Amino acid sequence: MKKFTDQDPETKSPDLVAENIEKLKAFFPEAFTEGKVDFEVLKQLLGGTVDEREEKYGLNWHGKRRARQIALTPSTGTLRPCPEDSVDWDTTRNLMIEGDNLEVLKLLQKSYAGKVKLIYIDPPYNIGKDVIYPDNFQDSIRNYLELTGQVDGVGRKLLSNTEASGRFHTNWLNMMYPRLKLARNLLRDDGVIFVSIDDSEASHLRRIADDIFGEENFVSSIVWRKRVSPANDAQWYSSDHEYLVVYSRNKESWFPNRTERNEDHNQYYKNPDNDSRGPWNSAAYTCNKSKAERPNLYYAIVNPNTRKEIWPDEKAVWAYSKETHLRHVAENLLYWGADGESRSPRKKQFLTEAQPVVPRSLWDYSEVGSTQSATTEMRDLGSGFGYPKPSTLIRKAVYQATRANSMDIILDFFAGSGTAGHAVMAQNAADGGTRRYILVQLPEPLDPENKDQKTAADFCDQLGKPRTIAELTKERLRRAGKKIKEENPLFAGDLGFRVFKLASSNIRAWEPDRENLAATLAEHAEHLKTERTEADILFELLLKLGLDLTVPIEKKTIAGKTVHSIGVGTLLVCLAAQIAAAQVEPLALGIVFWYKQLAPAGETQVVFRDSAFADDVAKTNLTAILQQHGLDNVRSL
């Protein structure tokens, strides 16, 4: 029976460096000598693709190398379940995770790598008062505030981005780079990321996104016209817009869903000639190719009304071949203008054949909401939060990037008040969708002295909850789900969410006291932290073994012990504190019987608490019985 330890790779988030080395070794084994990379050999194997220039185009800043290393450093944390804070815990597929998003992104790597369809984030805009996140979940809120210059040594609050630091962009870049690096790993091949940003960091975001996602995978910078009326207190220009910068994981694999037609789109379709096929619009009959490029498209056609022979411009020939043109004539598809004497025809396009509209890169507040409507939306939910995004804005991104009945996962790791979760639920209610969301939010304290946070802080006081943004996120999701249900009583979709909180691992780290090894061994007889619950340990196993945090879990009592079946028998877990020698055989045989009933599709792992066995004999006997019946992968914690 193999034992999980704090040194076991499976007790940490993925070691991305080791994984990259293994991939490199698989492609170029001859570039490795005694386990190390021989870069001279590797350069020879790669030939002319190696760029050895001393001066290269790109964005560099102080701390970039460390930011890259931070993304590659495994996390030793875990996520503790909080059913008491959740809604519909047993059935929901949505997640709200409270904790630093850098560590959470690391912990999600095994379970969600290559599974997220859409990432939407609204990161801090570096405007002089936004939080710069910590690089280690073990830092307390006080510690990370001190480390990032938001409080002094006695806890007095300062600004995080002063003229001497964040305004020079370095802190912001160091915060964003590792998070985007990890986020890319979570995207599906046909996945896409939308990042809300303003002018202060838009150019830098583009540069680091080019570095991480590849310049070739840039899709668009969407302009959101956010303001209904101008900001008259602006010194130069009223800032009426922001951006949504869009990158795909693989641009050839992702295309936005087109927009359904509405009255505005259809207003130009008329029927002046009473065509029996209904209203139509007209399109140009020429293309942007020249006579030299398309000689077969340079020919004369006849205006049936004037009988004149018409040639296209030599720099813009006809869009159709002569054969296709004759078919158009026979089918009465040409329009020669109101008087019938136009110098060039146009082709009829009927409303009945019109396709959905190609998405446009300008999103107006009249269509997707404004900063004012976002504030009103929060107020209607009984809450308040500074500078929220309207849920209708994110709904548009959700609509364009995902499919309704797909179980597509939408991730927002700068969740704020939870607008993205609200948007996903609202869009599902609108089209009967099954999309899922994962939100991550740091429990950043709300400051009642800050005018932008006072209402939200008061709101938390009314709820009897800690004054943190994460508490606001959870309450917003609860109220939004309830409101959506009231407005859509026939909608039977998922309006719940499971809450998890970032914490240190349930597995105790081996920290020997060299002066007193006997006492250390006695203290570590129990490998698991005694203050943690069975559910805590169970969900850490899911993370370590790469299973979805909302995978179905069934439990059964066998030989007086609780046994969990996770993912229809993919994982069988018994975390009983004690298993006597006399209980070994009935427990093992009961597990075998249940395993055969479940008939899992792949290999099954069976996990026990190591300290539950009185001696190694009982452990060996149980393992032998299980292996005799095909359960070869038996582990202990």
Give the key terms.
637 residues, Rossmann fold, 10-stranded mixed beta sheet, 6-stranded mixed beta sheet
Question: Describe it for me?
Answer:
With 637 residues, the chain is an alpha/beta fold. It contains 20 helices and 23 strands. It folds into 4 domains: 2-72, no CATH class; 77-260 and 359-503, Vaccinia Virus protein VP39 (Rossmann fold), CATH 3.40.50.150; 263-353, no CATH class; 527-636. A hairpin with a 2-residue loop joins strand 19 and strand 20 (561-566). The protein starts with a strand and ends with a strand.
Biggest pleated-sheet summary: 10 strands, mixed
Average of pLDDT: 86
Could you tell me the CATH topology label of the largest domain: Rossmann fold
Number of domains: 4
Quick recap of the structure?
This protein has 637 residues and is an alpha/beta fold. The protein is built from 20 helices and 23 strands.
Fold topology:
Layout: E1 2-3, H1 16-27, E2 32-33, E3 36-37, H2 39-46, H3 64-72, E4 77-81, E5 95-98, H4 101-107, H5 109-112, E6 116-121, H6 141-147, H7 170-186, E7 187-197, H8 202-213, E8 218-225, E9 241-248, H9 263-266, E10 280-284, E11 301-302, E12 309-310, H10 322-330, E13 334-335, E14 346-350, E15 362-364, H11 365-368, H12 371-380, H13 391-401, E16 409-412, H14 419-431, E17 436-441, H15 454-463, H16 469-487, E18 498-504, H17 517-523, H18 534-544, E19 553-558, E20 561-566, E21 571-574, H19 581-598, E22 605-608, H20 616-628, E23 633-636
Parallel strand pairs: 1-23, 5-17, 5-18, 6-7, 6-16, 8-15, 16-17, 21-22, 22-23
Antiparallel strand pairs: 2-3, 4-18, 7-9, 8-9, 10-14, 11-12, 13-14, 19-20, 20-21
